[in-house]
Specification:
Structural class: mainly alpha
Order of helices and strands: HHHHHHHHHHHHHHH
Number of domains: 2
Length: 346
């Protein structure tokens, strides 16, 4: 059952009913881990091909949409990532040749240098054929609906409206938005909700563990509105830190339904960060106290190092070392000013 007029926005419960879970018995936490690894691989392909961020995030959204319709046992995550990237090079006007996508794919999967890959090799031809076949399934899945609204666009608008955002806050918000594509948020909530959650979590992280709680940042009405009016002829202004902590809620005038969605999006992001086992520089994000106003549900993520990882079947396109590279978990989350040359908020 869909939660909005868009066929690509699903309730969180739909993650327990994907083809991978229902038809193949893959645990939800394992599918989400594999999705995360698949999107990491997708970003690495796109970065090596020098694709713009908008094209890569569009491809990542398609990746999640694809696995709402198909099982991860039917299509290998690396093949789907490559097909999404190749399709995005065409729809996002950043054309790359199929052979170039295939060469980068072969280099990443086989842990080889590009110079080691012969242009006329049978392996390269096989990879190209697999990408084209997977792209055909992707087109059918998407019903040729290519447009994707990116939370990064919404995030830039928030940063522009925020008075003199510190560079660290900008980078945190941008990186968290980038990481959000490693989670299924893009098929659960609107770009407006995702951008709000990323900004609020970045604010909390930037201001430190003793700063205003997430509950206070997204509560409605504002906590101060429930306090008795002090006996004074003049109102007492809120402290700047308190006022700014609710910037997103006040600026976007988020409804109660939207705030509930933001709360759950925050929970998913924090659960994702808390599941990491090799990323000390994001550990603090996983320790942020979850908002209590979000809907009660079981956690989507388990610590990645506690997951039972069965031996993976070889990718049919490559016979070499078939492992998605270890997660960078922030290493590829280039700060906003580096990705865009300079994030102009003027």
């Amino acid at each position: 059952m869909l939660t909005s007029s868009s066929q690509w926005i699903f309730p969180v419960s739909a993650l327990h009913q994907t083809p991978s879970v229902l038809n193949c018995g893959i645990p939800v936490e394992r599918e989400l881990y594999d999705r995360s690894k698949g999107v990491e691989f997708l970003f690495r392909l796109g970065s090596t091909l020098l694709m713009p961020l908008s094209a890569m995030t569009t491809a990542a959204t398609w990746f999640h949409r694809f696995y709402m319709r198909y099982s991860m046992e039917d299509y290998h995550r690396q093949d789907v990532a490559a097909a999404c990237i190749f399709l995005a090079t065409k729809t996002e006007e950043c054309g790359r040749k199929l052979r170039d996508v295939a060469r980068v794919f072969s280099a990443k999967v086989g842990n080889k240098e590009m110079s080691e890959i012969a242009m006329d090799s049978k392996e390269l031809e096989q990879i190209q054929n697999t990408i084209l076949a997977t792209e055909e399934a992707l087109l059918e899945t998407l019903c040729f609906e290519f447009w994707v609204e990116s939370p990064h666009v919404q995030l830039i608008q928030l940063l522009q409206a925020y008075a003199s955002p510190p560079p660290a806050l900008q980078d945190y918000a941008w990186s968290i938005a980038h990481d959000s594509f490693r989670t299924p948020l893009s098929v659960l909530y609107s770009a407006r909700v995702i951008a709000s959650a990323c900004f609020i979590l970045a604010q909390k992280h930037h201001e430190g563990p003793n700063s205003v709680s997430l509950d206070a940042r997204i509560s409605t009405p504002a906590p101060s509105a429930t306090l008795p009016t002090p006996p004074s002829r003049h109102s007492i202004p809120l402290l700047p830190s308190h006022d700014r902590s609710r910037f997103v809620v006040d600026y976007l005038t988020l409804s109660e339904d939207e705030l509930a969605c933001v709360a759950d999006a925050l929970c998913i992001l924090i659960e994702y960060y808390s599941a990491q086992d090799n990323a000390p520089h994001v550990a603090n994000l996983g320790l942020v106290q979850l908002p209590t106003i979000s809907p009660t549900r079981s956690k989507l993520y388990r610590p990645f190092n506690q997951l039972h990882m069965p031996k993976e079947a070889p990718n049919t396109t490559v016979t070499a070392a078939n492992l998605t590279p270890d997660s960078s978990h922030g290493g590829s989350n280039t700060p906003a000013h580096a990705l865009t040359g300079h994030l102009d908020l003027s």
